[in-house]
Write a sequence for this structure.
């Protein structure tokens, strides 16, 4: 199994550009989530999904969109990038909701918005 | 104020030392997780706890639900234990993680 994969590993954007961060898992996990990690702050939840077709907002959803058309994929879209979205983004998946199962994290995407 | 507080923020130890990292939280939880983030950035789940104590190799995690406190212990520390250790809680009112800011551990040979 590849586990949780993320692409790209690193991206530079200009303010106002849009892009999609890809996340895929091959473990047939229902629960998937996106986090951002900023210096001096803990990981913060952006959006999550409890199954195909079901998504919900986390702690910091503004400026980001998600969809979950398949169990395997959970892309994160930045509609109009801003310098405040410079961060490291992690995708994670688990068989169960976080209170009941191990979380598996992707390797991360480092995003720089100029 | 962050709902999850970790201490210390930074820790340097000599190889072989016994290490303790603390996590306190202020909300009701259904579970607490300890994660390890390697210098290269990857994050690995170490433990999930809802009560008591768990052990895996040289790592021991404990939780006291009444005190709202958890500890991660590393026995006979080794330079390969150098990493950031992150505490995360799942509130008992939802499905979301809330993370501490991490403890950066450096083990010197």
């Amino acid at each position: 199994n590849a586990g949780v994969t993320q692409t790209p590993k690193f991206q530079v954007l200009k303010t106002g550009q849009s892009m999609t961060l890809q996340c895929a898992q091959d473990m047939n996990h229902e629960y998937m989530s996106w986090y951002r990690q900023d210096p001096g702050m803990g990981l913060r939840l952006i959006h999550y999904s409890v199954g195909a077709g079901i998504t919900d907002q986390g702690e910091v959803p503004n400026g980001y969109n998600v969809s979950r058309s398949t169990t395997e994929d959970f892309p994160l879209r930045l509609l109009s990038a801003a310098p405040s979205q410079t961060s490291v983004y992690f995708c994670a998946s688990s068989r169960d909701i976080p209170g009941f199962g191990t979380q598996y994290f992707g390797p991360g995407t480092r995003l720089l918005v100029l | 104020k962050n709902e999850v507080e970790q201490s210390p923020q930074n820790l340097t130890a000599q190889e072989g030392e016994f290490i303790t990292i603390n996590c306190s939280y202020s909300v009701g939880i259904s579970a607490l997780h300890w994660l390890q983030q390697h210098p290269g950035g990857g994050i690995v789940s170490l433990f999930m706890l809802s009560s008591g104590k768990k052990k895996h190799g040289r790592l021991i995690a404990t939780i006291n639900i009444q005190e709202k406190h958890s500890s991660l212990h590393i026995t006979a520390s080794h330079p390969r234990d150098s990493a950031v250790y992150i505490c995360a809680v799942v509130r008992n009112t939802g499905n979301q993680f809330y993370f501490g800011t991490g403890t950066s551990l450096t083990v010197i040979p």
Summary: Chain A touches chain B at residues 31, 33, 35, 40-45, 48, 50, 58-59, 88, 90, 92, 97-105, 107-108 (CB under 8 Å). The two ends of chain A are 36 Å apart (CA to CA). The CA atoms of residues 31 and 99 of chain A lie 11 Å apart. DSSP finds no helices and eleven strands in chain A.
